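ARCHIVE CARD
CATEGORY: sequence design from structure
SOURCE FIELD: tokenized fold
FIELD CONTENT:
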């Protein structure tokens, strides 16, 4: 695994973290720190280890010390977790839909009550 591959994986994971968890940041390292408890312990540990690997990959001599198998495994764990996460706006969309339906039902009930009162049936 070359340093360029690690950098591309890091940008991919950073984009996934921003889109799936809604965690903003300039790099995967800052996003991992900001995610906090949104990430389970095992996933957070894998993200931190991958951050250390990407830090080593930025230096030519230290890049030789990278354990590629562990780096690929950590990236796979993190990617798998992030792809399982739902869209953060999904809950908002459902709430808006329920609120819209309730508002329409309330309006129909009020209009029905007004018609009943107007006709003198109440």
């Amino acid at each position: 695994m070359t340093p360029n591959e690690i950098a591309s994986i890091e940008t991919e994971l950073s984009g996934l973290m921003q889109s799936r968890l809604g965690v903003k940041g300039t790099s995967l390292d800052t996003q991992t720190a900001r995610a906090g408890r949104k990430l389970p312990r095992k996933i957070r540990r894998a993200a931190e280890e991958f951050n250390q690997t990407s830090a080593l990959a930025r230096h030519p001599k230290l890049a030789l010390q990278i354990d590629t198998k562990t780096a690929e495994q950590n990236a796979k764990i993190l990617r798998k977790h992030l792809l399982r996460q739902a869209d953060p706006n999904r809950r908002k969309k459902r709430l808006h839909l329920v609120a819209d339906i309730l508002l329409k039902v309330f309006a129909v009930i009020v209009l029905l009550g007004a018609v009943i009162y107007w006709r003198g049936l109440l």
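CARD ANNOTATION: The helical segments are 3-21, 28-35, 41-57, 68-84, 90-119. Residues 3-86 form one domain.
SHELF: design records, drawer C
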